[in-house]
User: Fold these one by one.
Assistant:
Number 1:
Amino acid sequence: MLSLTDLVPDPAALERIATGSTWAEGPCWIPATRALRWSDIPGDRILQWHEDTGETTVYAEGVEYPNGRTLDRDGSVVQCSHGRRRVERDRDGVVTTVVDGWDGVRLNSPNDVVVARDGAVWFTDPAYGITQPREGHPGEREYGDHWVFRCGPDGEDLRPVVLDVDEPNGLAFSPDGRVLYVASSSSAEPVVRAYDVDGARVKNGRVFARLHDDEGVPDGIRVDEHGDVWSSTHRGVTVFGPDGTRVGDVRVPEVVANLCFGGASGTTLFVAATTSVYRIPTTTRDAAAVS
Ligand code: MG
């Protein structure tokens, strides 16, 4: 197993590259424009930091409280919308619905999303966007729970796949796509759970890793090319090895909501942390970048 300094040679190299968000979430590296895109959820806008200039610009405003996002294989961006209670696709600024309901009722408020190797869209659907006034619009849990769903690239064949996570939030696949990790943002049980993927189903759910008492709850997670799981925490980013062993943590001076790998080399870790976005060099990259 790699050590933290194998992965992050200089933990002190953390650099704040942008600030002024209210609650920064959903970072995603956009290779075509060499930009990091993220959501300022209560600010109801999407921001971008441009690697070439170091400048931050507003990508879109009045966008119905978007949250997590991921790059699809065709270069479009799949993102979650609290306000529209849907998963949507942004292709060159044209935003369309992927899916917004299940079994005749609305979703809660999709939070984070990942695209699997076969193009299927997997997303979590907790209730923050309908229970937290700053993050969406008040509403009911119309199917009475909060699950992880899977659907085809255009929203077809939507089905619940994970029903046993207290507060499902971030999610990511192992490098071989055979394990799904789901973060539970439950203060009573702040864990990352793991599931074996069997086609469109999962089985053998178990606790993969647990945060310490002073780390708060996990939110966004990413998996690197070695199978390490990088979890947001209230004090930074904690890294777990493929077997769940704790590798170490990168301290960040604000509560971290989410993270992603990116940059020209793919090895920069970007961290969305409350009002700011930080970056730090690593020696690894996202598992999806090498599959
Ligand atoms: Mg989240």
Note: The CA atoms of residues 108 and 127 lie 5 Å apart.
Number 2:
Amino acid sequence: MMEKLIITAALTGAETTKEANPALPVTPEEIIESALRCVQAGASIVHLHARNRDGSSTQDPAVYKEIIDGIRERSDVIIQVSTGGAVGMSAQERLQPVDLRPDMATLSTGSVNFGEDIFVNTMEDIRTFARAMVERGVTPEIEAFDSGMINNALTLVKEGILQLPLHFDFVLGVPGAMPGTPEALMYMRSLLPPGCTWSVAGIGRAELPLGVMAIILGGHVRVGLEDNIYYKKGQLAKGNEELVARIARLAAELGREVATPAEARKILNIGGL
Ligand code: KMH
Ligand code: ZN
């Protein structure tokens, strides 16, 4: 039998604006409320980015702390902070929220074109990030925007910095990176060593079809306004929870149970060394 489905809600991101979708949660209060609504809808992980009051991206640990404390007071949902931050931030800046000892943190294991920008992750920075997570008991989620990033993660395993099994998130459909196609998903999945878990974050219109594929294939699903602002063509999502609820409904229709946060912690071995 397939393990239960872990739904991650990517609430805010670094690039989406309120102008693009007014439902985007930006302030700590908005992010906390959105996270709790997503948990009600079936999310067991919340992927967090922080913003300044003017809406710009920040990796300021004080802002992350406010968000994390607000969520933890009211939910046992798995807290995953971004160490990707926004394009152009320094590595030191990006790493700061890991000091707060969240349950998980993202670890992008390679550099990639990101639209007109470049998202830079040198091997030395990747090692530094990975060591910081391991030292603090923070479970990494490998963000693979392209297939070479899986190889880089496995290089860190060979070097003894990370240990198998790892959890991967395939981010598919960023302009300049791996496309958001079924073929790309199948290829990425084929590269994983046995025992590793994976989720898919389809960007834009790839979010829904790749999410459905993951439900069927035994993977996990990430949705949210960070990745996609639409519910369907021409119709903005009313909030992150609407996107989470749709995946939970489809999973039920397809006979795949949705994991609670406690069940997701067991599947991902969070907190157990
Ligand atoms: N904002 C992107 C440049 C992550 O959260 O770890 C990187 C990103 C990945 O969003
Ligand atoms: Zn992110």
Note: The radius of gyration is 17 Å.
